[in-house]
Amino acid sequence: MVKIEAKAVVIFEKGKLPEVLKEHTFTVDTDAIGEYQVVGESRGSPVNVSDLAQTGHAYKSQPTWTTELGGGRLAVLGNEGAFEIIAVGKGVTDFEVGDIVIPNRPSFGTWRSHIVETCEPGKHLPLRCVSSHKNPGLTAEQASTIRVNPSTAYDLVNDYIKDWDPNGNDWIIQSGGNSQVGKYLVQFAKLRNIKTISIIRHGKPDHDEIVKELKDLGATHVITDVEAASDKFKNEIVPSWVGSGAIRLATDCVGGDTFRTLSEYLTGDYMTDPRRPYLVTYGFVGSFDVNISGIDILSKGIIIAPYWLTSKTRLKREEAIHTLEEVSRLIIEGKIKHVPFVTHKYDAKVGWLNTYLMAIRDISKGKQVVTYK
Amino acid sequence: MLARQTARRTSSQLHQVRNMITAQAVVYTQHGEPKDVLTTHKYEIDDDNLDKNSIVIRTLGSPVNPSDINQIQGVYPSKPEKTTELGTAEPAAVCGNEGLFEVVKVGAGVSKFKAGDWCIPTKVNFGTWRTHALCSDEQMIKVPNPADCKARGREPLTVNQGATISVNPLTAYLMLTHYVKLEPGKDWFIQNGGNSAVGRYASQIGALLGINSISVVRDRPNFEEFARKLSTENGATHVITEEQNNSREFGPEVKKWTKATGGEIKLALNCVGGKSSAGVARKLAPNGLMLTYGGMSMQPVTLPTSLHIFKNITSAGFWVTQLLKSDLDLKLRTLSQIIEWYETRQLKDSPSHENHFSPDADLAACYIHAVDSSKQGKQLVVYQ
């Protein structure tokens, strides 16, 4: 049919951003694909902080190095994204043209316009179909960002505290309330009748709109980091909200003083209450320390646990797939709202790499997704 | 003389004249600094009319623990109930959590104790700073007295060993055995506060169980000799300074040690906090656990986040009281192991400074003095 000039954002070695990022082109010939190969075209891939971290030496998750795309040894960046199948080999039975698929492994290399993958029936599939003509499911837009943020939020709610009170007496407090994870988390919590306190940064120009958005999504209360750090909120306001309930989970993606502040809000009594409160950290990329009062660890019985999606995907495959299926179901059923993101549409005049560089530039302003068409 | 005999006869229809035991206890009705709030309360124990399951015990020794002091100050989460049971005008609590006792007399229904037996409290908050106690047999656990040890062909338990067995040795043993499976001969644990009482128990018990250890201690002028002593006398496989603990350059050296045994550092014990906790956490293998214990007044615990997340390090508190509160069987099993090691002289107890109490002295004054001396080391009040 056609020879496509495919484009990818790659690195040839680890190094400094953004110089280390290069545009690489390779040819995909849909007429010449193998019996078990499929060709997919990008329908959107986001820029995550962890994608960028893979270009440096400190991050423990490696990008996938390959020589199959020509040009020597290189790694395509990007961990999540959605592709539409545009061609399938004769022997492929798991996918059809028009299917929306997402990667089935971390470090897939999603920052590219096209993918060519071998999908032999009966073998482990590198892709996962999330929507087909016969079985419509997620939209491409939903699928492009389902892997990281919604799954993380779902796991934070479900992996640590297993005996949530169904009657609305249990609470979660979270930093990063305005992040994608934060916005999904309040929704998953609300589905289980868990109340939430979302902490957002003080002094946002659009403060009131953010609060309204978060409350519309299901946040019980939204407070600023300045309020959270104040004695008035610690000793009067939040206790008056929680009453005889319990703040059993705190999730933190900020670190520093926030980590400690969150620990101060947790409810627990190591001596008399067998319910151990959890302080779960996630989404850290930098290398810094967090502090917590030893007195709180002991008197409240706090357990500090990390959450790292990449590790879970590798080590607890079945559980990670279960999460993905549950999250997909809830989104398809409309119980969880897709959280909007900023889209950067590829323009041939701008170039593939430059489109990503624009998305990277805006990363602090919320989730950025690059679409091919 | 005549009057007493008459009195005896008059009351003989009810009972023989009562030979009550005059007991003393150190009590507080208000929280505060020990010297301000502790008083001696004297009361009588009627040992002639014991309930079926009651026992009368006399104290052989009870220590001053930091948590005892924190309880008196009102800053410790576990608090004894204040009651008027002992005949105090206001509700009062008896101080002390650990102690060794000797059974003086038992009620008619008591089969697990006889006079002369040694025992320790089943639970915390018993109130061990007292000369005698009247309690139910359930409230005490039997430990071997010197005659029992001798009958078993073993060395006798000392008063210090019995009086200080419930907290520090149990803490060390349970932290090493209850959470993470450490493979003898291969695996390692690392601990800061390596020269603390729990630290020395942990390295010794590690050695007895075949588990390798790295004890972190503060640097000191005679470090080499000090380290050698911790190794030869307290079983530490390696002793390093806080400076080495915090230095990244020292990491490869530690890796060399673990590589040589084919094991991993799966457990870190932290009682110091701050940089030191980050240092020991950094040496943990993936999926390792850091337990923080005994730090009611310590620095914040520091965790390096990237490592915490990438290595899936979990951090939790350890509190022996909480673990054993609902698991008497675990307490009995653990005690029996520690006692066996004491009797066979394989485990050395952490020494205490002895304060001797004579019955004509003021008991509260004796403990206040011991509290004041606590900075010089653990204090034990020994009764004659």
Per CATH, the architecture of the largest domain in chain B is Alpha-Beta Complex
Largest inter-chain interface?
A-B, 35 and 32 residues
Radius of gyration of chain A: 22 Å
Poorly predicted residue ranges of chain A: none
> What is the CATH H-level superfamily of the largest domain in chain B?
Medium-chain alcohol dehydrogenases, catalytic domain
> How many domains of chain B, as an integer?
2
Q: What is the percent of helical residues of chain B?
A: 25-40%
* Binned strand content of chain B: 15-25%
Largest sheet of chain B: 7 strands, mixed
CATH fold-level label of the largest domain in chain A: Quinone Oxidoreductase, Chain A, domain 1
CATH superfamily of the largest domain in chain A: Medium-chain alcohol dehydrogenases, catalytic domain
Q: How would you describe what is shown here?
A:
Chain B: It is found in: Mitochondrion. The complex is a heterodimer of chains A (about 375) and B (about 375). Chain A folds into 2 domains: about 5-145 and about 340-370, Quinone Oxidoreductase, Chain A, domain 1, CATH 3.90.180.10; about 150-310, NAD(P)-binding Rossmann-like Domain (Rossmann fold, 3-Layer(aba) Sandwich), CATH 3.40.50. In chain A, strand 4 and strand 5 (about 75) form a beta hairpin. Chain A has 12 helices and 18 strands. In chain A, helix 3 (about 150-160) packs across helix 4 (about 180-190), helix 3 packs across helix 11 (about 315-330) and helix 10 packs across helix 11 (about 315-330). By secondary structure, chain A is an alpha/beta fold. In chain A, strands 3, 6, 7, 8, 9, 17 and 18 form a 7-stranded mixed beta sheet that branches. Chain A has a 6-stranded parallel beta sheet with strand order 12-11-10-13-14-16, with helices on both faces. Chain B is of the alpha/beta class and about 375 residues long. Chain B has helices spanning about 1-10, 35, 65-75, 145-150, 160-165, 170-175, 195-210, 225-235, 240-245, 250-260, 275-280, 305-310, 320-325, 330-345, 365-370; strands at about 20-30, 40-45, 55-65, 95, 100-105, 120, 130-135, 140-145, 190, 210-215, 240, 265-270, 290-295, 300-305, 315-320, 355, 380-384. Chain B has 2 domains: about 5-165 and about 350-384, Alpha-Beta Complex (Quinone Oxidoreductase, Chain A, domain 1); about 170-320, NAD(P)-binding Rossmann-like Domain (Rossmann fold). In chain B, strands 3, 5, 6, 7, 8, 16 and 17 form a 7-stranded mixed beta sheet that branches. Strand 16 of chain A pairs antiparallel with strand 15 of chain B.
